[in-house]
């Protein structure tokens, strides 16, 4: 039976000087018990569709036309009260950004109780015990329902929103990018959780995401959106295995593969269409390598392909097989094959030895009054790392493992609490006492969300010139320095951009301005902390290529911090895997990708979703969350979650050079490669998939 | 020592430091003023030099400056304010009723306006662009930019002289001679005198709260968590309540600070309405160079502001679950 039926939905936003045609005649329907995916790049209208379904469109958004039928009722014509009754009771919502979707000044439990009591008259105790039950279901500690959102990590907050969505056992759950910004392991677990619960409750799921890998693994059917239009639609197996639409082919190409193979991800060049007019030509025409005159005349209708659940909107569906073949070739997309430069790395520019950063833990108000001694969080706990010029060192790890703190400590934004730190031949003390200014110029850091770091009221000239003024650097040739830097980051001709404001730039261009801001001082060292986590694939690929190029041409050392292994593999020369404040494996990228030694690395690698729905990925779901960084086990920090842990592991902590291989170090007594078989024999708790799994990733 | 205790200790230390500085500044400023409180008495010929010297010795004014300073510090910090020179009455006996009169007028006014204007401001911010929002902003901006005595005089003309609804002047009728606070304040006569200055004070304070509340809501509108609240099926009013709770902190802080400043009275208001409050008393005391009285009054006012600041900080830390009272967090 059809649960939700969307027919010719059209949504526009009115802005000061324009009308944005965000969703244009989109139709799809979801059957009961089916998982439905909506995929597409940022700006393709995915969230707008979700918000239109839920009646959450902001004030300037209007549903122009279209019919949304839910359980036989037309929900566009509901009164406010009727709609309120339907929300959460029948359709629940998991919002895009769990980070700020929870009310910061209300305890998480109360927020869920509020959702329950808004619809059913249940006593406080009943509601509370229901919340405890829900916490249990989503894998959170039921004793923590009185905690506030900021006391949870990103992944845990997402679990709270999932718990909330389940509270009333709705028929349909709309999940808008439930895992964006979470690291792979958490993402994997969350998706797994959603599926498990939804199976049990027999509800339907509308999953919105730009990661087609996630859809491939979880959904039965999907629609691929572009420019507010459905480009391709149908069963996941058909659409993703045999795409018939050039856009789907391009989208599929742009996902980097984690296998160390040198097949670079190919981004679709160009930028998303301008949505300020009703589409008259194929919305993908400007970026489509197969476009013909016909494509300029009208947007193609969605036509069903014979004998299968598969629809595609392209004037040239009949040539799908040929296009599929051509699409594999980067030249089709007009991208020069990146020549693989074996980069020569220069001398060491930054080196840390046993670097430590401990934080005093915040306590509850009560124990603060009682004056109990605080505990310490060992955010960075003895990290030794060196970075050379022209080298990109990637730092990977789950959220909370201390990678951002490591970045900030390396940038001396945080004072190290122990260990050695040498930059450009001078120790930490040198910079701390009076030479900080010089250090701030030579070391630049790019933060998680460069979009927000650009002041909307400043022109590009101002934005990029600001650091020059602050540091009084190249003061007599400001303009020149700005122009040079803009050109360096690929904003050419630079003059054209100087007087523009951030909102007049596309996402990718803004990103480049943020990078230019860091580069204008000619730094020797660049620290990038998840600079691409909020970007969608094509922008991400561009940024990675830009950084790679800068490292090669400008002779700077780069540390790239991310939870996204795929991007790390693409950009880095060397990779360091962090777990609970320590580096547990370090080595050249292809060594780690092909022969991970540490069991943790193996599970990280296996958590990345597979974009091909026909291959079955063997998941190594790690048990539990990382242990409390305050109360660490004495032996190997990974032992509580390690499938190979033995007595020896619990006793003393393995050192990073345990494996006696200078170039590929791993802190594990039973590294995965040589000892794999013996370890399997020796331990019954071992996961038999483990070794085969590591292999399957590298083929 | 825990972080919160350290936070508290730090704030307390700062407050104590500020108090010492404030008290010293009062001392210096008063000594720098030309003339002495006895001049008036001398010129009127009531006292001869001999008597003046005695009195000066009585008040310790013949001592060297540093000695005066130490004595002054010790006594003021132990709340021994001494005798008023001109009224020959303990200073506290002079100040206390004035302070009570001021507080009884301004505290209820402040509380009323904090609640009403904040609620109105929140509602206005929620219905952004509505007629209510625009008119409330224009009205309060107008009230804020008009000096309070003009509003007061306007109200007096309209309600006291033209409509003759309430008396224009004083706190009690001239004929009333009440004993004690209860008798003074619990009477219809007092209420009559109270209404007008109370209303003007409410209006005077309303603008800041209204704007603060409105801006807070405008800033929170469209945030992600409100969207989720809406998706849960909460009514508009419930959503507004959540937005309100989320923008409450600045209002609370501002309220605490205002509360501290109330101890200064509203001089112009007290003068116009003939309200025997502390502001008026201070002006008189300064005119007559009644050192002990001025010292004590200014000290109480400064102390109130400092304590209010401290309270604001602690309240903030208490009501914002995300405020960590020191140092950073983990990655
Ligand atoms: N409130 C708004 N006012 C004006 N335009 C808007 C508004 N919200 C979204 N848009 C525009 O509508 C289009 C679709 O946006 P939408 O948020 O649905 O994209 P999305 O597919 O969810 O992207 P993402 O992956 O980044 O979340 C974009 O061009 C966006 O700029
Ligand atoms: S209709 Fe033309 S432009 Fe559009 S996707 Fe097909 S080939 Fe490309
Ligand atoms: S040392 Fe032991 S517990 Fe630690 S990762 Fe290796 S096998 Fe696992
Ligand atoms: Mg979205």
UniProtKB/TrEMBL annotation, chain A:
<keyword id="KW-0406">Ion transport</keyword>
<dbReference type="Pfam" id="PF00005">
    <property type="entry name" value="ABC_tran"/>
</dbReference>
<dbReference type="InterPro" id="IPR050388">
    <property type="entry name" value="ABC_Ni/Peptide_Import"/>
</dbReference>
<dbReference type="InterPro" id="IPR027417">
    <property type="entry name" value="P-loop_NTPase"/>
</dbReference>
<dbReference type="GO" id="GO:0005524">
    <property type="term" value="F:ATP binding"/>
</dbReference>
<keyword id="KW-1003">Cell membrane</keyword>
<keyword id="KW-0472">Membrane</keyword>
<keyword id="KW-0547">Nucleotide-binding</keyword>
<keyword id="KW-0813">Transport</keyword>
<dbReference type="InterPro" id="IPR003593">
    <property type="entry name" value="AAA+_ATPase"/>
</dbReference>
<feature type="domain" description="ABC transporter">
    <location>
        <begin position="4"/>
        <end position="252"/>
    </location>
</feature>
<dbReference type="Pfam" id="PF08352">
    <property type="entry name" value="oligo_HPY"/>
</dbReference>
<dbReference type="GO" id="GO:0005886">
    <property type="term" value="C:plasma membrane"/>
</dbReference>
<keyword id="KW-1278">Translocase</keyword>
<dbReference type="InterPro" id="IPR003439">
    <property type="entry name" value="ABC_transporter-like_ATP-bd"/>
</dbReference>
<feature type="compositionally biased region" description="Polar residues">
    <location>
        <begin position="690"/>
        <end position="699"/>
    </location>
</feature>
<keyword id="KW-0067">ATP-binding</keyword>
<dbReference type="InterPro" id="IPR017871">
    <property type="entry name" value="ABC_transporter-like_CS"/>
</dbReference>
<feature type="region of interest" description="Disordered">
    <location>
        <begin position="653"/>
        <end position="699"/>
    </location>
</feature>
<feature type="domain" description="ABC transporter">
    <location>
        <begin position="350"/>
        <end position="605"/>
    </location>
</feature>
<comment type="subunit">
    <text>The complex is composed of two ATP-binding proteins (NikD and NikE), two transmembrane proteins (NikB and NikC) and a solute-binding protein (NikA).</text>
</comment>
<dbReference type="GO" id="GO:0015413">
    <property type="term" value="F:ABC-type nickel transporter activity"/>
</dbReference>
From TrEMBL, chain B:
<dbReference type="Pfam" id="PF19300">
    <property type="entry name" value="BPD_transp_1_N"/>
</dbReference>
<dbReference type="GO" id="GO:0055085">
    <property type="term" value="P:transmembrane transport"/>
</dbReference>
<dbReference type="InterPro" id="IPR035906">
    <property type="entry name" value="MetI-like_sf"/>
</dbReference>
<feature type="transmembrane region" description="Helical">
    <location>
        <begin position="251"/>
        <end position="273"/>
    </location>
</feature>
<keyword id="KW-1133">Transmembrane helix</keyword>
<feature type="transmembrane region" description="Helical">
    <location>
        <begin position="190"/>
        <end position="213"/>
    </location>
</feature>
<feature type="transmembrane region" description="Helical">
    <location>
        <begin position="12"/>
        <end position="33"/>
    </location>
</feature>
<keyword id="KW-0472">Membrane</keyword>
<keyword id="KW-1003">Cell membrane</keyword>
<dbReference type="GO" id="GO:0005886">
    <property type="term" value="C:plasma membrane"/>
</dbReference>
<keyword id="KW-0812">Transmembrane</keyword>
<keyword id="KW-0813">Transport</keyword>
<feature type="transmembrane region" description="Helical">
    <location>
        <begin position="147"/>
        <end position="170"/>
    </location>
</feature>
<dbReference type="InterPro" id="IPR045621">
    <property type="entry name" value="BPD_transp_1_N"/>
</dbReference>
<protein>
    <submittedName>
        <fullName>Binding-protein-dependent transport systems inner membrane component</fullName>
    </submittedName>
</protein>
<dbReference type="InterPro" id="IPR000515">
    <property type="entry name" value="MetI-like"/>
</dbReference>
<feature type="domain" description="ABC transmembrane type-1">
    <location>
        <begin position="99"/>
        <end position="312"/>
    </location>
</feature>
<feature type="transmembrane region" description="Helical">
    <location>
        <begin position="293"/>
        <end position="319"/>
    </location>
</feature>
<dbReference type="Pfam" id="PF00528">
    <property type="entry name" value="BPD_transp_1"/>
</dbReference>
<comment type="similarity">
    <text>Belongs to the binding-protein-dependent transport system permease family.</text>
</comment>
<feature type="transmembrane region" description="Helical">
    <location>
        <begin position="103"/>
        <end position="126"/>
    </location>
</feature>
């Amino acid at each position: 039976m059809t649960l939700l039926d969307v027919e010719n939905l059209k949504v526009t936003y009115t802005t000061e000087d324009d009308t944005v045609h965000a969703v244009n005649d989109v139709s799809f329907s979801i059957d009961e018990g089916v998982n439905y995916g909506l995929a597409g790049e940022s700006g393709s209208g995915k969230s707008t569709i979700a918000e239109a379904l839920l009646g959450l469109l902001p004030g300037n958004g209007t549903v122009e036309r279209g019919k949304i039928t839910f359980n036989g009722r037309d929900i566009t014509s509901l009164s406010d009260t009727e709609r309120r009754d339907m929300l959460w009771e029948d359709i629940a919502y998991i919002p895009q950004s769990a980070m700020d979707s929870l009310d910061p000044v209300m305890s998480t439990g109360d927020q869920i109780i509020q959702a329950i009591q808004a619809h059913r008259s249940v006593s406080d105790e009943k509601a509370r015990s229901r919340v405890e039950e829900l916490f249990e279901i989503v894998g959170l500690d039921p004793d923590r329902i009185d905690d506030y959102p900021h006391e949870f990590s990103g992944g845990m907050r997402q679990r709270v929103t999932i718990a909330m969505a389940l509270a009333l056992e709705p028929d349909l759950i709309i999940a808008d990018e439930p895992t964006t910004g979470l690291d792979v392991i958490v993402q994997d677990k969350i998706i797994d959780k959603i599926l498990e619960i939804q199976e049990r409750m027999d509800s339907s799921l509308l999953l919105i995401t730009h990661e087609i890998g996630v859809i491939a693994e979880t959904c039965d059917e999907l629609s691929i959106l572009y420019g507010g239009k459905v480009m391709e639609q149908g069963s996941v197996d058909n659409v993703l295995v045999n795409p018939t639409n050039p856009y789907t082919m391009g989208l599929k190409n742009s996902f980097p593969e984690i296998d160390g193979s040198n097949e670079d991800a190919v981004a679709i060049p160009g930028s998303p269409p301008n949505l300020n007019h009703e589409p008259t030509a194929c919305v993908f025409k400007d970026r489509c390598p197969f476009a013909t005159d016909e494509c300029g005349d009208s947007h193609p209708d969605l036509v069903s392909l014979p004998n299968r659940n598969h629809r595609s909107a392209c004037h040239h569906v009949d040539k799908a097989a040929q296009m599929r073949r051509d699409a594999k070739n980067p030249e089709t997309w007009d991208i020069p094959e990146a020549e693989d430069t074996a980069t020569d790395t220069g001398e060491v520019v930054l080196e840390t030895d046993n670097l430590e950063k401990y934080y005093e833990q915040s306590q509850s108000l009560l124990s603060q009054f009682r004056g109990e001694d605080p505990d310490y969080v060992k955010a960075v706990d003895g990290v030794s790392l060196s970075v050379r010029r022209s080298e990109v060192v990637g730092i990977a790890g789950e959220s909370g493992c201390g990678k951002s703190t490591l970045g900030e400590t390396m940038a001396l934004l945080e004072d190290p609490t122990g260990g050695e730190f040498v930059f450009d031949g001078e120790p930490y003390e040198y910079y701390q006492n009076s030479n900080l200014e010089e250090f701030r110029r030579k070391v630049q850091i790019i933060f998680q969300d460069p979009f927000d770091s650009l002041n909307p009221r400043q022109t590009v000239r101002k934005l990029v010139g600001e650091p020059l003024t602050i540091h009084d650097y190249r003061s007599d040739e400001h303009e020149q320095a700005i122009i040079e830097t803009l050109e360096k980051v690929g904003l050419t001709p630079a003059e054209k951009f100087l007087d523009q404001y951030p909102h007049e730039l596309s996402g990718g261009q803004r990103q480049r301005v943020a990078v230019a801001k860091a580069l204008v001082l000619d730094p020797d060292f660049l620290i990038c902390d998840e600079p691409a986590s909020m970007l969608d694939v094509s922008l991400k690929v561009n940024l990675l290529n830009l950084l790679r190029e800068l490292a090669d041409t400008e002779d700077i050392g780069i540390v790239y911090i991310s939870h996204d292994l795929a991007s790390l593999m693409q950009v880095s020369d060397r990779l360091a895997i962090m777990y609970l404040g320590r580096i547990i494996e370090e080595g050249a990228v292809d060594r780690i990708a092909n022969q991970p030694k540490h069991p943790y690395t193996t599970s990280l690698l296996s958590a990345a979703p597979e974009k091909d729905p026909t291959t079955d990925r063997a998941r190594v779901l790690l048990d539990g969350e990382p242990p409390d960084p305050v109360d660490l086990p004495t032996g190997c920090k990974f032992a509580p979650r390690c499938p190979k842990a033995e007595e020896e592991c619990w006793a003393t902590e393995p050192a990073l050079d345990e494996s006696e291989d200078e170039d590929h170090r791993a802190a594990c007594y039973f590294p995965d490669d040589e000892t794999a078989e013996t370890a399997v024999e020796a331990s019954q708790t071992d996961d038999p998939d483990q070794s085969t799994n590591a292999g399957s990733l590298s083929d | 020592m825990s972080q919160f205790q350290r936070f508290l200790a730090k704030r307390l230390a700062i407050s104590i430091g500020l108090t010492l500085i404030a008290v010293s500044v009062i001392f210096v400023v008063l000594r720098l003023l030309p003339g002495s409180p006895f001049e008036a008495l001398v010129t009127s010929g009531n006292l001869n030099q001999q008597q003046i010297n005695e009195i000066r010795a009585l008040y310790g004014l013949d001592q060297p400056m540093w000695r005066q300073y130490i004595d002054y510090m010790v006594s003021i910090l132990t709340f021994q304010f001494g005798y008023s020179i001109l009224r020959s009455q303990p200073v506290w006996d002079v100040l206390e009723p004035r302070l009570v009169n001021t507080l009884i007028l301004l505290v209820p006014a402040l509380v009323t306006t904090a609640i009403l204007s904040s609620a109105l401001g929140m509602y206005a911010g929620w219905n952004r662009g509505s007629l209510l929002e625009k008119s409330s902003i224009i009205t309060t901006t107008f009230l804020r930019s008009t000096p309070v005595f003009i509003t007061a005089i306007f109200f007096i003309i309209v309600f006291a002289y033209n409509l003759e609804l309430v008396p224009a002047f004083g706190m009690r009728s001239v004929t009333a001679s009440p004993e004690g606070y209860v008798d003074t304040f619990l009477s219809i006569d007092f209420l009559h005198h109270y209404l007008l200055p109370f209303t003007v004070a409410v209006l005077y304070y309303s603008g800041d709260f209204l704007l603060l509340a409105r801006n807070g809501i405008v800033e929170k509108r469209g945030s992600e968590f409100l969207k989720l609240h809406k998706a849960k099926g909460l009514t508009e009013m419930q959503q507004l309540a959540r937005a309100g709770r989320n923008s409450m902190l600045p209002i609370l802080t501002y309220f605490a600070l205002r509360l501290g400043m109330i101890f200064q009275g509203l001089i112009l208001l007290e003068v116009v309405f003939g309200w025997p409050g502390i502001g008026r008393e201070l002006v008189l005391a300064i005119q007559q160079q009644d050192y002990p009285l001025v010292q004590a009054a200014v000290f109480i006012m400064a102390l109130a502001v400092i304590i209010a600041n401290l309270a604001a900080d602690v309240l903030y830390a208490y009501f914002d679950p995300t405020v960590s009272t020191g140092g950073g967090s983990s990655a």
